[in-house]
Each structure stands twice: as C-alpha cells, then as structure tokens.
Amino acid sequence: MSIRMQQRPAGIVDVVVIGAGHSGLAMSRALSQRSIEHVVIERGEVANSWRTERWDSLRLLTPNWMSRLPGFEYQGYDPDGYMTVDEVVDFVTGYAGYVAAPIISGTEVTRVTPAADGYRVSTTRGDWLCRAVVAATGAFNVPVIPPVADGVPTSVSQLTAREYRNPAQLDDGAVLVVGASATGLQLAQEIQHSGRQVMLAVGEHVRMPRVYRGRDVQWWMLNSGILDQRIEELDDPQRGRRLPSPQLAGTPGRATLDLNALQAQGIETVGRLAGIRDGKALFSGSLRNVCSLADLKMNRLLDAFDEWAECNGIATDVETAERFPATEIGASPRLGCDLGSEIKTIVWATGFRPDYSWLDVPVFDRKGHLRHDRGVVDAPGLYVLGLPFLRRRKSSFIHGAEDDVRELSSDLFDYLDRTARRPAAAIGGWW
User: Fold this and answer.
1) Which tens digit of pLDDT belongs to each residue from 23-68?
2) Tell me, what CATH number does 116's domain have?
3) What is the dihedral of CA 233, 235, 241, 244, to 10 degrees?
4) Domain boundary, last residue among 348, 364, 383
5) Separate counts of helices (H) and strands (E) for the chain
C-alpha cells in the first residue's frame, strides 16, 4: 500500500504532529478517525531514526508477536523472532500506508511558537498555523555523554551509540564501552567478536533473562501486568523514567545476555567510569555492590512471575521455576586503565535525551526538562508522545503507543472541542 505523501504548501490545520515514527503515525490514525485536519511533519522519511541512527546488527528487544499498532499487527512468519532494523522500517512504513497518514516528508521543524489561538510551526518549507501540536519525535535524539569525556586524550577516538554502525569503524586496538544497559552489552559483545579486546564500564543496570520458564521474559512482563503499570503508581515517577533498558538482546537463539555471558567471552568488566585524570580512566570500586543489587532485583522480579503463575493457575503450563547464577566479580576489579597506550577507542553507550530545541514555548523546568503530565504539556494544546514511561511502563515500546495515544488523543479532542472556532486575536482571524 502506498503512502500518501502530501507535498502541498504550508498552511492552516487543526493539529500538527511532529515526527513520522510509530507514535506520530498512531496519533495520525486517531485524528483521521475523528476527521480532524492535520499533517505529520517528518524531517526525513517515515521511521527516519531507524533508517539513519541505529547500528547495523540491532534487533528489537521485544518479540515480533508484541509488535502491533492500532488496527495493525505483525503478520510475518517468525512471531517469536526479533525484528531487524530493516524489518522495523518496513513495519512502520507499512503502517503509514495503512493509515494513509498525511505526511510532509523531508521537512525539518525549526521553531514552534505561540500564535493566536494556537501555534506557529516554522519549517524549512514554510510555516503552519494550528490549534494544537503533538511532539512525537521520541526520546532518543541526542546522545548523553558524561562531562568526564572532556578529559579524554586526543589520541583516543570517541563515538556514541548513535554514531556506531559496526566494528569496521573502529581503530585497531582495545575498546572501552561505557554503559551496561542493553545497548552497551550488545555493542561490547559485537566488538569483542570482531577480534578487539573490550573493557566494559558498568554502572546501574537491570539484569533480566531472555527466557524464563520456557517463555520470553517479555511474555511474563506483559501477561503479569508489569508492562501496564501506570506512572502514577510509582513512588518516584522521575526515577522510573530514568531507569536503563534491561540487559536483553533479540538474537535468533534467544540467548541471555548479561555480564556473566560477556565475561565468559573474554570481556573485562570494571566499575562505573568515575573520572579521567592525566590520561588515565578511573573506575568506581562499587562494581560488586551494583551487580549484587541488580541480581537482587532480578530475583524479586522472578519471584513476582512465579507468584502470578500460581495465582492464575498456569504454573503447570510453564517450565519449572529456576534461578540464575549471581554475577561473577573477580577478587580485585581494576580501578583504572591508560587511555591511548591501552585503550584506543571509547564507545559511549550512556543513554539519550529528547531534543526540543525547536520548541520556543516556556514549558521547561530549571534543568531543561519538558514539563508535562503524562504527555499533556504545561501549555494549552501542546502534547508529547513516545517518551519512556509516559503513561505506562510499556510506553516506549511499539505496542505501548496504542493505549497512550487513545488516552492522550481524548485529551486533545476535548481541548479542540473547548476551543472550537474561538475568534482569533491576531493574524487576521486565521480560523
């Protein structure tokens, strides 16, 4: 099914959706079902970040059977597999065609400012006037690089997980991967397999088996209700939104990827990168405690799965409960290494943050974070989608968009109804 790419000139609509990823397209479907005139503005092509900002071997952390969007779901031959980057692009592009989204492609939003009865969305191809804006640009726009990076010697190459594509990019010699979430572990493993020695700097992380009692761990997360946990149920919502992604990989063999697996392959684990001094990387001595905490939390999670299975009468339908070996830590993990003579490249797998540099509306706190209540931004008619734990734990997953869009679009529709055809105070009454 072809995508309806509208190359019309900029103009006036009810809603501008910024971003043609899965969240923006799901919102477009909801708007179309209400016959609300809108456009979806995309700086590149549909699923642009998947096309241009992912490493070559990346696969989804969720099995294919979980990949669904409103009215659309995975129809392939491998429901228990994990989509490659190209397959994700095809899936999202197929959805864009399915919903006939009014996409304005190859158009960058440069500024969003308040205007009479709404907003002015300035782009590289003209301005749009609208009553509401939905920012669906995602959470993984700008790599977060810790300040200690300023001390890295110029002789050491540096790149982020966004820039990394494959080991052929890297200089010869040992590599320090900083960060032990899903990204850090996957990159460390791939680089080690290329023949380079890898050191992995480990901070707070979430340990999780790929398969538990014969089922994918995401099956347990979904069916036990953990993925549906709402943000308002947490004692510390902001911490919940900052948790790193679990140590998982979507390999065809469904292998568990954790620190034990990496160490068995020859990767050296060290503590969190605490500083750089005189060309030497300094690591925290808390590695053992950090790993013990991750082990403890994993076992609590598995206990919760077991309890849920018993309470719901399925304990005999799955394999026997099991526990996994504790993370192995050597007697004396090293506390430093030389950069340049020993480490030739640093790969920063230290997370990402959203980019709202184009949003010229006073909706940011003193730390520069967007002020919003579960996607309803602190400004009339402004909404955000696609952030981790936006409303539920599953919000950042493809299948999590359905519930978030259903609830957020209800807020948006109510807002449009309340402000319908209100006389404009400027711009000549552009309604």
Assistant:
1) 999 999 999 999 999 999 999 999 999 999 999 999 999 999 999 9
2) 3.50.50.60
3) -110
4) 348
5) 9, 24
